[in-house]
Backbone:
């Protein structure tokens, strides 16, 4: 078991620099710090870059969740979380999860749903970075991955907003659900409660990151093969 984990960690260390090298799919020129020229590129190319960005975010969220589990979560607690003992912060958002419901979403609501998920997670991921910094034995790789995802989520938000302007002639979305789903801080948690809260955040974000990727890929499919998108 320890050998397998060691091998996984070594592979992650080898692949991590490569991930940074390919992690600028939304940048509309070679400069990774700028999104200023996104309106000048085609809708198709921008959608491809947004999808690639979402794929990377989901991949790193999976890696972060697995790393956190190995470091801090014994199996019985993982099972407790999987059985629904902790609610996700986006549970109340009007976003379907069944395949049939997702298929019925219009292109507009696919994009709005992605944007709503992205915006709902920006603040909690900042909180997660702060709490992980207080862990005594949190590996640097976990801290770096969490910071990377937090930064790239903001970039994804910018890309989705530009895509909405291109596809729907719309700007940012104002939603009545933002206050209801506002993230609540609690600095009085004991160590176990804090660990379980952070684990819940990671597992829930991983699920939502997969939704973002799925919605964007469905949108892409509809642009190319409208009647055969499953």
Residues:
């Amino acid at each position: 078991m320890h050998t397998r984990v060691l091998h996984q960690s070594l592979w992650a260390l080898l692949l991590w620099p490569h991930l940074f090298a390919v992690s600028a799919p939304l940048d509309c020129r070679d400069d990774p710090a700028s999104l200023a020229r996104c309106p000048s590129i085609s809708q198709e190319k921008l959608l491809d870059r947004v999808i690639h960005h979402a794929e990377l975010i989901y991949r790193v969220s999976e890696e972060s969740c697995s790393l956190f589990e190995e470091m801090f979560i014994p199996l019985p607690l993982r099972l407790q979380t999987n059985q629904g003992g902790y609610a996700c912060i986006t549970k109340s958002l009007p976003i379907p999860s069944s395949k049939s419901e997702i298929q019925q979403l219009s292109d507009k609501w696919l994009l709005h749903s992605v944007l709503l998920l992205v915006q709902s997670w920006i603040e909690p991921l900042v909180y997660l970075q702060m709490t992980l910094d207080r862990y005594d034995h949190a590996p640097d790789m976990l801290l770096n991955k969490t910071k990377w995802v937090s930064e790239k989520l903001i970039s994804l938000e910018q890309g989705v907003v530009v895509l909405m302007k291109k596809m729907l002639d719309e700007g940012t979305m104002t939603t009545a659900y933002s206050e209801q789903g506002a993230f609540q801080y609690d600095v009085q948690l004991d160590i176990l409660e804090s660990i379980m809260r952070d684990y819940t955040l990671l597992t829930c974000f991983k699920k939502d990151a997969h939704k973002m990727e799925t919605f964007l890929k469905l949108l892409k499919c509809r642009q190319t093969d409208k009647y055969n998108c499953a």
